[in-house]
Each structure stands twice: as structure tokens, then as C-alpha cells.
């Protein structure tokens, strides 16, 4: 995308050292506005809107795009998983590369955990019919997800009229944090039990792109636990698809489905 100027390592390091790392370590979350600027941010938005318009977004599953596992009482978004290499995702690819670079600057300064890889990007739309996503933790059972990064794409968003606020309930804190899903805003928070959160009902079309960065050691241990549990080195996808509806009959098993998807399908 030739119209986008390269962001220097110095700029990313300054942003990380002065704002993101201190906020993550003290509050457990942080955000930055104006990440890409209007031109590049609008290019990302255009591509996401086109994905939505062309029917590429499907009802959100509890554990990713697994057929037959939609639970709209829990989450009401429509999603697609992309790597950024797909045709028509050039601006999304630029965004993902920039977030990768930013996280690489932060990673070595956030403790002794090794962050080497991330999930594909989850492109999500809440269609504005009053749906949201109930209070949950992204990584409640040590599946490897270390950091959650959400990039918002909503121009002229008015939370009082449109809703859609992401509310974080920081562990051990006496306050909640309400994050407005404003255009060109990047939100980063710990994926584990430190940050239960919810998406409040949205009354206007709400777009976001989410990626998760993995703690390499924890992810490897989670894969090993599952292999030990099943007695197999891998779980065939079709068997997984057949098992999922049975696993989620009880809501208490939702996190197990999340773990399965995170380990084998992301």
C-alpha cells in the first residue's frame, strides 16, 4: 500500500516505552488512538465492510468458525478468520504487520514470558440489533493466549446512542474500565483471568479486528495436556466438529471448547 508511510522502530519503541508498557504493567490494559491515521484506517474499514457486504462474515461461534456451534445468547457477532494474505486484505495485512512490530517491541519488557506467535485475525461485526458478548475471559484455562489486541473501525461512534462499549473488570480493582470502540483505536490487554470483559449491546453496526499473541511455553504445555488427555498426537478435525456440539451442551464447558479451538484451529 504505497500511500502508507513506514513507521520507524524508534516511533514504536517510544510508544511502547512511554505509554503501552507502563499501562499494561500497572492497569492490565492500554490503548492508543490514531494508530494508522484516517487514510490507512479507512482502507482497513473499507476492506472489512466489503467482507461483510459479500457475506464472508458468519455467525460467531464460541470457539471459532466451527459449523453448528452458534450461541447468540452468549455472543451475537459475525466473524471471519483471515491471515492477511487473502486477496482484498492488503490494508488488513498492513495493520497486522504493524501490530506485530509493536508487540515485538513490548514483548521482552513484559516479564519472562516468550511471545513468538499469534492467532489469525478475527474480523468481527456486531450488526446493530442489540447483541453483544457476555462477560468472559479469553484465556481462563492457560491455553497460551497472552495478549489480546483489538483494533476498532467505527467512525462517528456515540456510545450513548450506539452502545457497544467493551467493559473490562480488572482483577483486584475497585473500578471497571469502559473502552469505546472508536475508529483507529488499538486496545491491548492481558488475555488471562486478570481481565474479565464484556461487549455491551450494540445498536449500530460495530466492526473490530482481534488477534491474540501466545506465550510459547504455555501454549506448548496446553497442547501437551490435550495430547495426554486424548492419548493421540492430534485430533482429526471432523472428530472435533462432531464432539463440539456435545461438549457445549452445558455452559460450564464453554471454556473447554475455546481451548480446543485455540490449540488446533487458530
Automatic annotation (TrEMBL):
GO terms for cellular component: cytoplasm; nucleus. Gene3D superfamilies: q2cbj1_9rhob like domain. It is found in: Nucleus. Keywords: Dioxygenase, Iron, Metal-binding, Nucleus, Oxidoreductase, Vitamin C. It catalyses: L-prolyl-[hypoxia-inducible factor alpha subunit] + 2-oxoglutarate + O2 = trans-4-hydroxy-L-prolyl-[hypoxia-inducible factor alpha subunit] + succinate + CO2. The keyword Oxidoreductase applies. Its cofactor is L-ascorbate. GO terms for biological process: cellular response to hypoxia. One of its GO terms (molecular function) is ferrous iron binding. Its main location: nucleus. Residues 117-215 form the Fe2OG dioxygenase domain. Its EC number is 1.14.11.29. This is hypoxia-inducible factor-proline dioxygenase. The lineage of its organism: Eukaryota, Metazoa, Chordata, Craniata, Vertebrata.
